[in-house]
Amino acid sequence: MNTDQHTTIASRTGRRRLMAAASLAVAAFAVPAQAQNAGKGPTAPQVLKRALELFLAKDMKGWSELCDENVVVELPFSPDPSARKIVGRAAIYAFLKDYPKAIDIKSLPTMKIHATEDPTVAIAEWSVSGRVISNGNPYELSYATVVTVRNGLIVNYREYFNPQAFMAAMSGAKF
């Protein structure tokens, strides 16, 4: 078996485990979206959906503007330890601003957003399809994201993904 086959198997296995965990979390906490907010501005699922739309549109400034000034962004599986916790709107914009120059996301083939028992929290199961610009590698990753929203802004963003699949796609490329 060659390295590409090992990477594909690791990516699929990691994705299955991640999606299974996200599905269990969703089943445990799901409630109807209309029960979340009762007309008081955008719901947590609406804000999360908008964030993913801005991400696809490569609008990192717009994405960061959906965040509270003191947002906490957690990427606990990030291969880069310095990216595992990013605090503040300015810091997350600085982190994301060059992302579109490194990775060309073409589509979000999967986007399932779930309301939870807590009206300020939403969960997304989503995937991306694109290319790493510097090396031409396919960029096909699945994510599970949990956000907390207050006053229409993201105050906590926690994203889970397969770091092995990420590193294989990037093959040393940085953003």
Notable characteristics:
175 residues; alpha+beta; Nuclear Transport Factor 2, Chain: A
CATH architecture: Roll
Average pLDDT score: 85
Give the percentage of residues in beta strands.
25-35%
End-to-end C-alpha gap: 30 Å
Radius of gyration (Å) = 16 Å
Assembly category:
single chain
State the major sheet.
6 strands, mixed
Structure annotation, total helices: 7
Task: Spell the H/E element sequence.
Answer: HHHHEEHHEEEEH
Inertia-based shape: globular
Tell me the name of the CATH class.
Alpha Beta
Can you list the strand order of the major beta sheet? Answer: 2-1-6-5-4-3
Low-confidence stretches: 5-10, 18-38
Task: Write up this protein.
This protein is an alpha+beta fold and 175 residues long. The protein has one domain (3-170): Nuclear Transport Factor 2, Chain: A (Roll). Helix content is 40%, strand content 33%. It is built from seven helices and six strands. The protein is globular. The two termini are 30 Å apart.
